[in-house]
Specification:
By secondary structure, the chain is α+β, with helices and mostly antiparallel strands. It is built from eleven helices and four strands, in the order ααβααβαβαβααααα.
């Protein structure tokens, strides 16, 4: 009987404040969708780092004839065969080095033509303009400075480049987007909390006669407050469910279909459905508990029992 009464009171409260309840659902849904999106973006960045950092190389570009007149590091002329052999031997002695691959100017030219053959500048490039290089794979990508400090000032070396620098700009951008999403999420959560508190206040005021009668017949504070708390929790749970729908649709349309980023960006290791599904229980739990907590705090002020 008590459970039936509580459920009926929840239905009455939701119908009386339908507009505000809808606003709570929308604000909770948007804030939790941003929260889930920020979590997924953070996991995507970490996944990409683990994937790419294991594959990037340290490139040691060697001086050619053209560099001797245009670069201060190649002022002593193009790299000699003896210098190349010495650089390779010293690289193979380093404990941090896993493999060393020598790329000739001809190989670099063929790769360049394959990647940029359709561009206008590619027609003006000749093999002698390309640089020989050593592609060094490290056991630990964080040890780049060991190679850089040992070979950057060597005769015959034009520059030492860590390919991670290129990726860091992308990861920094994605981290910035994640932080922006978290900031917007925080704002939306504040708005949702204010709406919940206001909804509870209006609901408590409109039913002050019923709560007064319940208090006179000896109902406990918990029993009187429970319908209001469950109303807020129910609205929050609906918002959480909508947020889960947004996350699932976002993963589907952005990566699998619609934009189909998985097909267009095959070099990117995108997070799978398991990463999305594991976030849904957390989103639902926050959607349920956050409004209930906000309502219980608000009732202490607006419903004196």
């Amino acid at each position: 009987m008590r459970a039936q009464f509580v459920l009926s009171e929840i239905g009455v409260g939701l119908r009386r404040n339908l507009t505000m309840t809808f606003a709570v659902i929308v604000s909770v849904a948007l804030s939790l969708a941003l929260f889930g999106g920020a979590l997924l973006m953070s996991q995507q960045v970490n996944t990409m780092k683990d994937y790419w950092y294991d594959k990037v190389n340290v490139s040691i570009f060697l001086c050619n004839k053209n560099d001797a007149t245009t670069s201060r590091s190649c002022a002593k002329g193009a790299v000699t065969d003896q210098q190349k052999h010495q650089i390779k031997a010293d690289l193979e002695k380093l404990e941090v080095v896993e493999t060393v691959h020598h790329e000739t100017a001809e190989q670099a030219y063929k790769l360049y033509k394959k990647q940029y053959g359709d561009t206008g500048i590619a027609a003006s490039i000749t093999p002698d303009q390309m640089q020989e290089s050593f592609r060094v794979k490290l056991k630990d990508p964080e040890k780049y400075q060991v190679v850089a400090s040992a070979f950057a000032q060597r005769d015959g070396v034009h520059q030492v480049r860590d390919q991670r620098d290129i990726l860091e700009h992308l990861f920094s951008l994605m981290n910035g987007m994640r932080i922006a999403a978290l900031c917007v999420m925080g704002l939306m959560l504040v708005i949702a909390m204010m709406l919940i508190v206001n909804t509870v206040r209006v609901s408590a005021f409109s039913r002050r006669r019923e709560t007064g009668i319940m208090r006179l017949v000896g109902a406990s504070s918990f029993y009187i407050q429970m319908p209001f708390i469950m109303e807020a929790a129910f609205a929050g749970l609906l918002g959480g469910a909508v947020a889960c729908g947004f996350l699932l649709l976002g993963r589907y349309f952005l990566i699998d279909n619609g934009l189909a980023l998985a097909d267009k960006m095959q070099l990117v290791n995108f997070i799978g459905w398991d990463a999305v599904l594991t976030k849904l229980p957390l989103v639902l739990a926050i959607g349920l508990l956050m409004p209930a907590l906000a309502a219980s705090i608000a009732l202490r002020k607006y419903l004196k029992v």
